[in-house]
TrEMBL record:
Homology family: Belongs to the DNA photolyase class-1 family.
Keywords: Chromophore, FAD, Flavoprotein
Origin organism lineage: Eukaryota, Fungi, Dikarya, Basidiomycota, Pucciniomycotina
GO BP field: photoreactive repair
Keyword Transmembrane set for record: no
Domain of life: Eukaryota
Flavoprotein in keyword set: yes
Region (Disordered): 601-658
Co-factor(s): FAD; (6R)-5,10-methylene-5,6,7,8-tetrahydrofolate
Native species: Rhodotorula toruloides
Polar residues biased stretches: 610-619
PROSITE patterns tied to this protein: PHR_CRY_ALPHA_BETA
PANTHER family to which the protein is assigned, alphabetical: CRYPTOCHROME, CRYPTOCHROME DASH
Domain Photolyase/cryptochrome alpha/beta: 4-180
Protein name per its UniProtKB record: Cryptochrome DASH
Amino acid sequence: MGRKVVLTLHRNDLRMHDNELLHAAHDSSHSDVTHVLPLYVFDERFVELSGFPGYEREGPEARTRLCGFWRTGAFRARFLVEGVYDMRTSLRQRGSDLLLRFGKMEKVTTDVVKALIANGDEVREVILQKEVRTFLHTVMDGAKGLARQFYTEELAIERKLRKALREVGVELRTFDQVPLIHVNDLPFAPEAMPDVFTPFRKRIENLPRLGRPPFPIPSPFKPYPRPPSDSQPWPGYGAHIELEHRGLEYVLHCLLRPLQDTFQLRAGSEGKNQKSAFPYAGGETPALERLEWYFKEGNPPPVARYKETRNGLLGHSYSTKLSPFLAFGFISPRLIVKALDEYDEKFRSTQNTYWIRFELLWRDYFLYAARKFGSKLFTLGGFEERTDPKQAAIKTQPGWWKQWDQDQPLVGQTDKEQPAVRWMQGKTGVPFVDANMAELRESGFMSNRGRQNVASFLTKDLQIDWRLGAEFFESHLIDYEPSNNWGNWAYIAGVGNDPRASRQFNPVKQGNDYDPYGDYVRTWLPQLSAVPTNRIQCPWILSDADFNKYIPKGSYPRKPVIEQPGWKAHYTRRGPSKQGVPNRNERAKNLGPVILGAAAAREQGKKPNGVSTATQTAGGETDGSSRRRETKLNGIVRAEAKQNGSGGGGATKARYLE
Ligand SMILES: Cc1cc2nc3c(=O)[nH]c(=O)nc-3n(C[C@H](O)[C@H](O)[C@H](O)COP(=O)(O)OP(=O)(O)OC[C@H]3O[C@@H](n4cnc5c(N)ncnc54)[C@H](O)[C@@H]3O)c2cc1C
């Protein structure tokens, strides 16, 4: 008699705990199912597969759309492979397995289903995690007055898969399990969610509970359907017997092989950087170890200091470091909330746990905002094209953003490279920015504080198209998640949902505040090790003699790529500057028509209003430090972020925060 099989197709849900796919495949509605086949497909659209001998790609290389960076850089590729093999081990320990294949997800899956059917098996259904951005998006075409519909990339793939499976008589079932708050539990229709974070958060916080309880791990596991014979394995690239046996290192080697180009260091190919703030391997096992360590190790455990340490830069203990695990679904957000609840219960303290929940709501906020605004997540004018079309029109005028001229070859001299290139290389000459970029390039991680600073520097100081930054992060970050990355970038660039679009960071002040002894800069820019602490954030003000004395020749730019007047007050650390010229996003709010004129002038090759574009953001500074008001609500300490490091979202009267 043929086997009755359910196929669970895994993407960013590579875990045993709280996995609705595995739960559904084993639950009572499938009591007559005899086998479960878990499948993972390395999809050529997201990960470059040309390093596998004999692999024939169907589509183009897995590169980002605008800048052509590898979509999955070396650190994330390693992290992913580690996680996939970790899940495979866990499944094998339970008598199951994980089938690994390479290609296009919809094609590979359908081929496996066909092979099962040809073998006389009955395929009951294929189960898949629904990605949040799986929806149809309607856009009005202004010129033609027509409504045009776009598929998100995820929806396009899901539709193709559903169609191909239907043709062989098999249904696809999807489950929503990426956000903490299930879509059906939202206190508003997803398309009517509040545009701004604070009202979104407040509505969610009024729910009776934050997220559903996690699903248990199925026990026992239904057996894995072995192929008819070793000589006839399940189809698809990867069926090759050698690949099956060579394992993780071989797969990794093939994935890393093509990932060498100008801005991609040999990152990841040599394993973990000892200095990294994220020293973990990928997978559910390390994720659970981290959770355990963070919530239980020591008395009190690290979670007890989250609020005070979350803006740290060095070492792994300063924040939860759960984002990379969340991005691949190695850990479920509901399990994190369970750990938070248990901690609250045990220690009767909600101070720190509140702030972790708060941050997790930022994650949900960006996930749902991406769903609401669809393709606007990736457009130059961002969400603002829908929320404030007039502002968006100003900010999408030609000349508003500078571009990276990719045809211009590298000149090999730092101070002559294009500003975009200096930013990517971590050679802007502004140590706090460069140290963060070095950390990203050499470890695949960067703190939230660092991300805000380098993003602000690229978009507000250098005025470069923010999508370059988003794509660079997409390529390099191990915790890359589309909605959270692009949403945060748009937010900082002033085209997202930040009610205060003028948010701008002063990297000298930020360096003084968050790296007061220069330890962080010295860790990632060892060539600056000998620079005295009072000059470590602004080495350009050293005399020539001192610069040459402290910094090895040619190892660091003599001058920063840009110097803002507002930084000067912080060279001598006299405290925060009160002066400031509004940055251009602020001007866009107040002086839209003037800037429109300026943009037009720039297009004609003139300097707008006699001001060079480089100085238009002069003086703007945002510290981003916490200004929180804590109130008691329902017996729980709640905190209002007037302005917080991750973009508190609350309106504030101060133009520049100290
Ligand atoms: C320009 C920019 C790009 C970013 N790109 C990503 C990305 O691709 N993927 C990603 O997961 N996060 C991204 N973030 C958000 C944030 O920087 C990281 O989630 C955070 O640094 C991860 O470290 P952690 O897990 O120790 O965070 P913690 O401080 O411990 O926070 C706990 C969790 O809350 C969530 N969280 C915290 N801050 C934010 C935030 N600002 N937005 C959304 N969720 C948040 C994360 O899931 C995080 O794991 C980006 C932020 C900026 C400014």
